[in-house]
Design brief:
Distance between the termini: 48 Å
Radius of gyration: 24 Å
Number of helices: 12
Largest sheet: 7 strands, mixed
Strand content: 15-25%
Structural class: alpha/beta
Shape: elongated
């Protein structure tokens, strides 16, 4: 109920689309759209939990993605000053407009558009029931959206949501959780079973609440992403093992020479291996594993590496020798930060 939940791999069962599920619009029975992978949320209890978590105020503009036939939309219209909805299926858009008008609600604005391509409004609260295969690009665009919103209450595939909310030491803890924590605090609202939808998808779901950090944490995203990729390349290995690979040493050595050139300095003679071990040992992290390290400690690690001239981005693109090697501080984050990597490589065993 509120919307169209679209899960990957949810092809209709034998018997065709009609067997997969139908919806009645304007007195006509129509199949749910296979192309959009539509799964209509029918559980009123879940709708109420979404509304409660959204904590909508009378002055709020709510941005709803995937209103479907409008079960959640009607509840949002009751509490918000204005609801702006993006719906890719014209049939659904027509139905939710008709339903709102029939109830005398004039505070609904529906745009028939792809949420990744359409222009977003300025909003206070976001609710989203969207195709699960666009979870990563949607998350990136949401977290980069300005001005900051107050909160977002989002339906995701359960596995993706678990990687978003994972805490230090948990199996699902990886780059996605750490990188997301730079921008927002994420918490679980409720789990949603397959039976809460018509037709049921092939995966379970979870509703999460996202609250932006205000002000956001400042970091050089290219440096941060480079560090995270090394640490979580095998998150159950020790950091010593992850850093001292031949490829990583070669990359860090090349980056070091580039940064020295940019700053007009002569590279030191100390081997990169010794420089890296010195930093890891000083912070007592050489024998620690990525899955056991929290956000604040990763920040300290990055600062300490940088202080010793160790960098995780070459900074050569667009830079000039003698220029400001720290000019990338305000660089915008890349969507790569939010690509779901399956909680990174994980063979389930602790490694040396």
């Amino acid at each position: 109920g509120g919307g169209t939940i679209r899960a990957p791999g949810s092809a209709p069962p034998a018997g065709g689309e009609a067997a997969a599920g139908r919806l009645t619009l304007g007195g006509m029975s129509l199949p749910t759209n296979k192309k959009h992978g539509q799964h209509l949320l029918k559980n009123p209890g879940i709708i109420e939990k979404i509304v409660a978590a959204s904590d909508i105020k009378p002055s709020d503009t709510v941005f709803e993605i995937g209103p479907g036939t409008g079960n959640l939309t009607m509840r949002l219209l009751e509490g918000a000053k204005r609801v702006v909805a993006h719906e890719i299926d014209p049939r659904m858009a027509a139905e939710v407009r008709k339903r709102a008008a029939g109830a005398g609600r004039q505070n609904l604005e529906v745009h028939e558009t792809d949420v990744l391509r359409g222009k977003w409004p300025i909003f206070d609260v976001c609710t989203a029931n969207l195709p699960y295969q666009i979870s990563s690009p949607f998350t990136f665009r949401l977290l980069a959206h300005r001005p900051l919103f107050r909160c977002a209450v989002l339906m995701f595939q359960k596995e993706f949501a678990e990687r978003l909310i994972a805490k230090v030491g948990e199996k699902q803890y990886g780059r996605l959780a750490v990188n997301t924590a730079l921008f927002v605090k994420v918490s679980c609202v409720c789990k949603v079973s397959r039976g809460s939808f018509t037709p049921p998808p092939e995966v379970d779901s979870m509703v999460v609440k996202v609250v932006p950090r205000d002000p956001p944490i400042e970091v050089d995203f290219r440096e941060w992403d480079g560090l995270m990729r090394i640490c979580f390349s095998r998150k159950r290995k020790t950091l010593r093992s992850s850093f001292l690979t031949k490829d990583t040493m070669k990359t860090l050595e090349e980056n070091y020479k580039t940064w020295c050139a940019l700053k007009g300095e002569r590279p030191g003679k100390e081997p990169m291996r010794e420089k890296v071990l010195q930093v890891l040992t000083a912070l007592e992290l050489a024998e620690q594993r990525a899955i056991r390290i929290d956000l604040d400690t990763y920040f300290r690690l990055l600062l300490e590496f940088n202080r010793h001239g160790i960098h995780f981005s070459s900074c050569s693109a667009g830079a000039r020798v003698g220029g400001d090697a720290t000019a990338t501080k305000g660089a915008a984050p890349s969507m790569e930060l939010f690509v779901d990597d399956g909680a990174d490589e994980d063979d389930g065993e602790m490694e040396d």
